[in-house]
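Figure 3 (text version): C-alpha coordinates given as input.
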Protein backbone atom coordinates (compact mmCIF):
# COMPACT_ATOMS: atom_id res chain seq x y z
CA UNK A 1 0.00 0.00 0.00
CA UNK A 2 1.44 3.38 -0.95
CA UNK A 3 1.64 5.94 1.77
CA UNK A 4 2.36 9.58 2.18
CA UNK A 5 6.10 10.09 2.22
CA UNK A 6 7.73 10.50 5.57
CA UNK A 7 11.36 10.43 4.44
CA UNK A 8 11.82 14.17 3.93
CA UNK A 9 14.87 14.33 6.20
CA UNK A 10 16.99 14.88 3.07
CA UNK A 11 16.20 18.60 2.91
CA UNK A 12 17.03 19.02 6.60
CA UNK A 13 20.35 17.27 6.04
CA UNK A 14 21.19 19.48 3.06
CA UNK A 15 20.25 22.63 4.99
CA UNK A 16 22.50 21.51 7.88
CA UNK A 17 25.41 21.04 5.48
CA UNK A 18 24.73 24.42 3.85
CA UNK A 19 24.61 26.26 7.20
CA UNK A 20 27.88 24.68 8.34
CA UNK A 21 29.52 25.59 5.05
CA UNK A 22 28.31 29.17 5.46
CA UNK A 23 29.81 29.40 8.97
CA UNK A 24 33.16 28.02 7.78
CA UNK A 25 33.27 30.34 4.75
CA UNK A 26 32.31 33.37 6.85
CA UNK A 27 35.24 32.50 9.14
CA UNK A 28 37.63 32.74 6.20
CA UNK A 29 37.99 29.04 5.35
CA UNK A 30 38.58 28.35 1.67
CA UNK A 31 35.70 26.51 -0.07
CA UNK A 32 37.65 23.30 -0.80
CA UNK A 33 39.00 23.23 2.77
CA UNK A 34 35.47 23.80 4.17
CA UNK A 35 34.18 20.71 2.37
CA UNK A 36 37.18 18.79 3.66
CA UNK A 37 36.43 19.78 7.26
CA UNK A 38 32.82 18.66 6.89
CA UNK A 39 33.97 15.30 5.55
CA UNK A 40 36.20 14.55 8.56
CA UNK A 41 34.46 11.97 10.79
CA UNK A 42 35.88 13.44 13.98
CA UNK A 43 35.07 17.04 13.08
CA UNK A 44 32.88 19.12 15.34
CA UNK A 45 30.98 20.10 12.22
CA UNK A 46 30.47 16.53 11.12
CA UNK A 47 27.89 16.16 8.38
CA UNK A 48 24.67 14.34 9.17
CA UNK A 49 24.78 10.56 8.67
CA UNK A 50 23.53 8.78 5.60
CA UNK A 51 23.46 10.11 2.07
CA UNK A 52 24.53 13.63 3.11
CA UNK A 53 27.79 12.32 4.58
CA UNK A 54 28.51 10.31 1.42
CA UNK A 55 27.93 13.33 -0.81
CA UNK A 56 30.01 15.65 1.39
CA UNK A 57 32.89 13.17 1.30
CA UNK A 58 32.62 12.78 -2.49
CA UNK A 59 32.61 16.55 -3.04
CA UNK A 60 35.60 17.03 -0.73
CA UNK A 61 37.55 14.53 -2.85
CA UNK A 62 36.34 15.70 -6.25
CA UNK A 63 36.25 19.44 -5.57
CA UNK A 64 39.99 19.93 -5.64
CA UNK A 65 40.86 21.24 -9.10
CA UNK A 66 37.27 20.94 -10.32
CA UNK A 67 34.11 23.01 -10.16
CA UNK A 68 32.58 22.45 -6.72
CA UNK A 69 29.10 22.99 -8.13
CA UNK A 70 29.57 20.25 -10.73
CA UNK A 71 31.16 17.99 -8.10
CA UNK A 72 28.02 18.38 -5.96
CA UNK A 73 25.78 17.44 -8.89
CA UNK A 74 27.90 14.42 -9.83
CA UNK A 75 28.03 13.14 -6.24
CA UNK A 76 24.29 13.71 -5.74
CA UNK A 77 23.40 11.89 -8.97
CA UNK A 78 25.58 8.93 -8.02
CA UNK A 79 23.91 8.80 -4.60
CA UNK A 80 20.47 9.18 -6.19
CA UNK A 81 21.16 6.13 -8.38
CA UNK A 82 21.85 4.11 -5.22
CA UNK A 83 18.66 5.45 -3.60
CA UNK A 84 16.62 4.62 -6.71
CA UNK A 85 17.89 1.05 -6.72
CA UNK A 86 17.02 0.73 -3.02
CA UNK A 87 13.56 2.16 -3.72
CA UNK A 88 13.02 -0.38 -6.51
CA UNK A 89 14.07 -3.24 -4.24
CA UNK A 90 11.76 -1.96 -1.49
CA UNK A 91 8.89 -1.65 -3.95
CA UNK A 92 9.40 -5.24 -5.08
CA UNK A 93 9.10 -6.28 -1.44
CA UNK A 94 5.92 -4.23 -1.06
CA UNK A 95 7.54 -1.44 0.97
CA UNK A 96 7.79 2.17 -0.17
CA UNK A 97 11.30 3.47 -0.74
CA UNK A 98 12.92 6.64 0.59
CA UNK A 99 12.46 9.58 -1.75
CA UNK A 100 15.58 10.91 -3.41
CA UNK A 101 16.95 14.29 -2.27
CA UNK A 102 18.71 14.92 -5.60
CA UNK A 103 16.70 18.11 -6.20
CA UNK A 104 17.96 19.67 -2.95
CA UNK A 105 21.61 18.92 -3.76
CA UNK A 106 21.11 20.17 -7.32
CA UNK A 107 19.72 23.37 -5.82
CA UNK A 108 22.81 23.72 -3.62
CA UNK A 109 25.05 23.19 -6.65
CA UNK A 110 23.13 25.81 -8.63
CA UNK A 111 23.24 28.28 -5.73
CA UNK A 112 27.01 27.73 -5.44
CA UNK A 113 27.52 28.25 -9.19
CA UNK A 114 25.31 31.35 -9.33
CA UNK A 115 26.99 32.96 -6.31
CA UNK A 116 30.44 32.25 -7.73
CA UNK A 117 29.71 33.56 -11.22
CA UNK A 118 27.73 36.63 -10.11
CA UNK A 119 30.17 37.63 -7.38
CA UNK A 120 27.56 37.34 -4.62
CA UNK A 121 28.90 36.84 -1.06
CA UNK A 122 29.02 33.04 -0.88
CA UNK A 123 28.51 32.72 2.89
CA UNK A 124 25.43 34.97 2.96
CA UNK A 125 24.06 33.31 -0.17
CA UNK A 126 24.36 29.91 1.49
CA UNK A 127 22.63 31.18 4.64
CA UNK A 128 19.73 32.45 2.52
CA UNK A 129 19.61 29.15 0.62
CA UNK A 130 19.61 27.14 3.88
CA UNK A 131 16.63 29.18 5.06
CA UNK A 132 14.86 28.36 1.80
CA UNK A 133 15.58 24.64 2.25
CA UNK A 134 14.16 24.68 5.78
CA UNK A 135 11.00 26.30 4.41
CA UNK A 136 10.74 23.59 1.76
CA UNK A 137 11.29 20.85 4.36
CA UNK A 138 8.48 22.25 6.49
CA UNK A 139 6.18 22.41 3.46
CA UNK A 140 6.94 18.76 2.70
CA UNK A 141 6.28 17.76 6.30
CA UNK A 142 2.95 19.61 6.24
CA UNK A 143 1.98 17.75 3.06
CA UNK A 144 3.04 14.43 4.59
CA UNK A 145 0.93 15.05 7.69
CA UNK A 146 -2.07 16.04 5.57
CA UNK A 147 -1.76 12.83 3.52
CA UNK A 148 -1.13 10.47 6.43
CA UNK A 149 -4.79 10.28 7.51
CA UNK A 150 -6.30 9.35 4.12
CA UNK A 151 -3.43 6.94 3.40
CA UNK A 152 -3.93 5.19 6.77
CA UNK A 153 -7.68 4.92 6.08
CA UNK A 154 -7.00 3.28 2.72
CA UNK A 155 -4.66 0.78 4.36
CA UNK A 156 -7.23 -0.03 7.05
CA UNK A 157 -10.13 -0.74 4.69
CA UNK A 158 -7.96 -3.07 2.61
CA UNK A 159 -7.76 -5.33 5.68
CA UNK A 160 -11.57 -5.75 5.83
CA UNK A 161 -11.74 -9.00 3.80
CA UNK A 162 -9.19 -10.70 6.06
CA UNK A 163 -11.15 -9.49 9.09
CA UNK A 164 -14.31 -11.07 7.63
CA UNK A 165 -12.59 -14.44 7.15
CA UNK A 166 -11.18 -14.41 10.68
CA UNK A 167 -14.56 -13.40 12.08
CA UNK A 168 -16.22 -16.38 10.44
CA UNK A 169 -13.56 -18.71 11.82
CA UNK A 170 -14.07 -17.22 15.28
CA UNK A 171 -17.75 -18.12 15.03
CA UNK A 172 -16.78 -21.73 14.42
CA UNK A 173 -17.29 -21.92 10.66
CA UNK A 174 -14.61 -23.20 8.28
CA UNK A 175 -14.55 -20.13 6.05
CA UNK A 176 -11.04 -20.85 4.76
CA UNK A 177 -12.00 -24.40 3.87
CA UNK A 178 -15.09 -23.11 2.13
CA UNK A 179 -13.03 -20.70 0.08
CA UNK A 180 -10.46 -23.26 -1.05
CA UNK A 181 -12.39 -26.54 -1.27
CA UNK A 182 -15.80 -25.68 -2.72
CA UNK A 183 -16.71 -24.43 -6.18
CA UNK A 184 -18.76 -21.46 -4.90
CA UNK A 185 -15.92 -20.64 -2.49
CA UNK A 186 -13.31 -20.76 -5.26
CA UNK A 187 -15.45 -18.45 -7.40
CA UNK A 188 -15.71 -16.02 -4.48
CA UNK A 189 -11.96 -16.32 -3.88
CA UNK A 190 -11.05 -15.51 -7.48
CA UNK A 191 -13.53 -12.64 -7.84
CA UNK A 192 -12.71 -11.20 -4.41
CA UNK A 193 -8.96 -11.49 -5.04
CA UNK A 194 -9.25 -9.64 -8.36
CA UNK A 195 -11.29 -6.87 -6.73
CA UNK A 196 -8.86 -6.62 -3.83
CA UNK A 197 -5.84 -6.32 -6.14
CA UNK A 198 -7.68 -3.74 -8.24
CA UNK A 199 -8.62 -1.75 -5.14
CA UNK A 200 -5.05 -1.87 -3.85
CA UNK A 201 -3.66 -0.69 -7.18
CA UNK A 202 -6.29 2.05 -7.41
CA UNK A 203 -5.43 3.26 -3.90
CA UNK A 204 -1.73 3.36 -4.78
CA UNK A 205 -2.38 5.49 -7.83
CA UNK A 206 -4.64 7.88 -5.92
CA UNK A 207 -2.11 8.36 -3.11
CA UNK A 208 0.78 8.72 -5.57
CA UNK A 209 -1.20 11.26 -7.61
CA UNK A 210 -1.77 13.39 -4.51
CA UNK A 211 1.96 13.84 -3.88
CA UNK A 212 3.53 17.27 -4.56
CA UNK A 213 4.89 17.36 -8.11
CA UNK A 214 7.35 20.24 -7.60
CA UNK A 215 9.82 19.20 -4.91
CA UNK A 216 11.67 22.54 -4.85
CA UNK A 217 9.08 25.30 -5.40
CA UNK A 218 10.53 28.79 -5.63
CA UNK A 219 14.09 27.53 -6.13
CA UNK A 220 14.79 29.46 -9.34
CA UNK A 221 13.48 32.64 -7.72
CA UNK A 222 15.93 32.10 -4.86
CA UNK A 223 18.74 31.57 -7.36
CA UNK A 224 17.85 34.84 -9.10
CA UNK A 225 17.83 36.63 -5.74
CA UNK A 226 21.33 35.28 -5.05
CA UNK A 227 22.53 36.49 -8.44
CA UNK A 228 21.24 40.04 -8.05
CA UNK A 229 22.59 40.27 -4.48
CA UNK A 230 26.08 40.22 -5.98
CA UNK A 231 25.39 43.44 -7.82
CA UNK A 232 24.89 41.82 -11.20
CA UNK A 233 22.53 43.42 -13.67
CA UNK A 234 19.22 41.70 -14.29
CA UNK A 235 20.34 40.51 -17.72
CA UNK A 236 23.59 39.11 -16.34
CA UNK A 237 21.73 37.50 -13.45
CA UNK A 238 19.29 35.85 -15.87
CA UNK A 239 22.19 34.41 -17.87
CA UNK A 240 23.91 33.11 -14.73
CA UNK A 241 20.73 31.50 -13.42
CA UNK A 242 19.83 29.91 -16.77
CA UNK A 243 23.34 28.53 -17.17
CA UNK A 244 23.39 27.12 -13.63
CA UNK A 245 19.88 25.67 -13.97
CA UNK A 246 20.86 23.91 -17.19
CA UNK A 247 24.08 22.49 -15.71
CA UNK A 248 22.29 21.24 -12.60
CA UNK A 249 19.15 19.94 -14.29
CA UNK A 250 16.75 22.46 -12.72
CA UNK A 251 13.67 23.64 -14.56
CA UNK A 252 13.41 27.37 -15.22
CA UNK A 253 10.29 29.41 -14.36
CA UNK A 254 10.50 32.66 -16.38
CA UNK A 255 6.73 33.16 -16.11
CA UNK A 256 7.13 33.82 -12.37
CA UNK A 257 10.37 35.79 -12.60
CA UNK A 258 9.47 38.34 -15.28
CA UNK A 259 6.54 39.99 -13.41
CA UNK A 260 8.72 40.44 -10.32
CA UNK A 261 11.56 41.96 -12.35
CA UNK A 262 9.12 44.23 -14.18
CA UNK A 263 7.78 45.50 -10.83
CA UNK A 264 11.31 46.12 -9.57
CA UNK A 265 12.14 48.10 -12.73
CA UNK A 266 8.99 50.22 -12.48
CA UNK A 267 9.52 50.94 -8.78
CA UNK A 268 13.26 51.44 -9.18
CA UNK A 269 14.07 49.18 -6.22
CA UNK A 270 16.45 46.21 -5.82
CA UNK A 271 14.85 43.00 -7.06
CA UNK A 272 16.36 40.70 -4.40
CA UNK A 273 13.76 41.28 -1.69
CA UNK A 274 10.89 40.99 -4.17
CA UNK A 275 12.29 37.74 -5.56
CA UNK A 276 12.64 36.20 -2.09
CA UNK A 277 9.12 37.32 -1.21
CA UNK A 278 7.79 35.72 -4.41
CA UNK A 279 9.69 32.51 -3.62
CA UNK A 280 8.06 32.40 -0.18
CA UNK A 281 4.66 32.92 -1.79
CA UNK A 282 5.30 30.06 -4.23
CA UNK A 283 6.20 27.76 -1.33
CA UNK A 284 3.04 28.77 0.55
CA UNK A 285 0.97 28.09 -2.57
CA UNK A 286 2.64 24.69 -2.92
CA UNK A 287 1.79 23.84 0.69
CA UNK A 288 -1.83 24.94 0.20
CA UNK A 289 -2.04 22.87 -2.98
CA UNK A 290 -0.70 19.83 -1.11
CA UNK A 291 -3.34 20.30 1.57
CA UNK A 292 -6.06 20.56 -1.07
CA UNK A 293 -4.79 17.35 -2.69
CA UNK A 294 -4.94 15.62 0.68
CA UNK A 295 -8.51 16.83 1.24
CA UNK A 296 -9.57 15.55 -2.17
CA UNK A 297 -7.82 12.26 -1.48
CA UNK A 298 -10.03 11.62 1.54
CA UNK A 299 -13.03 11.78 -0.83
CA UNK A 300 -11.61 9.98 -3.87
CA UNK A 301 -10.47 7.04 -1.74
CA UNK A 302 -14.15 6.26 -1.26
CA UNK A 303 -14.36 5.14 -4.91
CA UNK A 304 -12.07 2.09 -4.64
CA UNK A 305 -13.58 1.44 -1.24
CA UNK A 306 -17.13 1.26 -2.58
CA UNK A 307 -16.39 -0.33 -5.94
CA UNK A 308 -13.62 -2.78 -5.06
CA UNK A 309 -12.84 -3.24 -1.36
CA UNK A 310 -16.38 -3.60 0.03
CA UNK A 311 -17.45 -6.06 -2.73
CA UNK A 312 -14.23 -8.00 -2.03
CA UNK A 313 -15.15 -8.02 1.65
CA UNK A 314 -18.56 -9.45 0.80
CA UNK A 315 -17.06 -12.12 -1.45
CA UNK A 316 -14.16 -13.11 0.81
CA UNK A 317 -15.61 -12.48 4.25
CA UNK A 318 -19.39 -12.68 4.15
CA UNK A 319 -20.12 -15.08 1.28
CA UNK A 320 -17.93 -17.94 2.65
CA UNK A 321 -19.62 -17.53 6.02
CA UNK A 322 -23.07 -17.77 4.43
CA UNK A 323 -21.98 -20.79 2.34
CA UNK A 324 -20.59 -22.50 5.46
CA UNK A 325 -23.82 -21.82 7.37
CA UNK A 326 -25.96 -23.18 4.52
CA UNK A 327 -23.70 -26.24 4.15
CA UNK A 328 -23.91 -27.02 7.86
CA UNK A 329 -27.68 -26.52 7.83
CA UNK A 330 -28.19 -28.79 4.82
CA UNK A 331 -25.85 -31.36 6.32
CA UNK A 332 -27.80 -31.31 9.56
CA UNK A 333 -31.04 -31.96 7.64
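Below: residues designed for each position.
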Amino acid sequence: MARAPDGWAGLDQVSAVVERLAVLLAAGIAPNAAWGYLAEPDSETEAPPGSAARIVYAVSRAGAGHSIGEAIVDAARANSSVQSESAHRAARRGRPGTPSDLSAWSGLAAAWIVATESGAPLAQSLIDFASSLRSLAQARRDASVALSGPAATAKLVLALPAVGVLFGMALGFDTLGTLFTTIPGLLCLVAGGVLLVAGRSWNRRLVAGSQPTDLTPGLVLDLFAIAVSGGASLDRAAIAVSRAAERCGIGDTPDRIEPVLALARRAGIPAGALLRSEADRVRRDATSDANRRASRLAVTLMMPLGLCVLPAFMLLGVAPLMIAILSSTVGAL
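The mean pLDDT is 74.
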